[in-house]
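Each record in this resource describes a single protein on a pair of labelled lines. With that in mind, the following record should read easily:

===
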Amino acid sequence: MTDALEEVFAAALKSRIFKKRWVLLPDYVPEELPHRESELRRLAEVLAPALRGEKPSNALLYGLTGTGKTAVARLVLMRLSKRAREYGVPVRYVYVNVRHRETPYRVTSAIAEALGVRVPFTGLSVGEVYERLLRRLRRMQGVVIVVLDEVDFLPKRSGGQDLLYRLTRVNQELGGSVWVGLVGITNSLGFVESLEPRVRSSLGEVELVFPPYTAPQLKDILERRARVAFNPGVLDEGVVPLCAALAAREHGDARRALDLLRVAGELAERRGEARVREEHVYAARMEIERDRVSEVVRTLPLHAKLVLLSLVSLIDEGRPPSTGEIYEHYKRLTVELGLESVTLRRVSGILSELDMLGILRSRVVSRGRYGKTREIHLDADREAVLASLSEDPMVARIVERLKG
């Protein structure tokens, strides 16, 4: 076993495939972001007043997954911070992924800790942590820009709207000692409509919409990264165009395209092959799909899992169901489990969220004189979905019934 491990480690140190694998990872921010020049410029214009010590407008960045929102925000803020240091202007930024932090307490703690405030993991109220954050800010000067990535997850938590409201109004509590600007990033185009009016008017002062990448744009992005990431001559000619084409079908997701290229290279390397071929790309797609579905489904709230179970069950009966049919089936499941069901409107919202996450897709079809209806199709692997759902003990019994 020891010899086998040494062989693996030695192979990793002398990769025949990769030169700089990390440039294909999601967290890597390149010096240039092709095909996002206008978005970079617009966000820079919004945040540039910070260089004069003035409060920048709050900004909200919309777009589907993998359209460059986070990369644009990080690149602009990195460049802004660098220029601020050159001018001797105190400008800081704090980045928080709301989805990873989960609760208003942990989001507030993350902002506070990034500014040097020590906060216990539990034991305080959100209000106390927020007061500690205020005290720290009052001792600061210049501008602090807070980036809330996947900000649409915050209002879904108890107290989330209140925290957003306080953050949008924080400058009124500081009295001009320091200015705080907010940048929200969301995949949900309906996010603003879900907010209370008092929050809506303050958060989205400037809105930037990021369109999906086209297949040629994705190909260009991949070619630039591939030149840095891979050793010369290891990619077959069709690999990059295939990764771009597959990702373009899925809403122009650059992250998906980069993942496909990276995992294809990793598969070739694990198999001891000298070149990355198209067959590695198809194998990578299957591996990524299994991992993505498992991660998404495993973290869904209980009622979203029941809605997804209802969809799978109805599709097994032979045709794609409508929203109303899914809702009726979902209500039967809640009765079976002794739960109180949510409203039809909320189930419709859950279906839209699952659509955005790539688990399902919907299309409006005409039924002649009976009008139009929305048909829901499962867009993820059925077995992967059921395997992930079965990990929840609340729904495992129902899943086993479907498997049987």
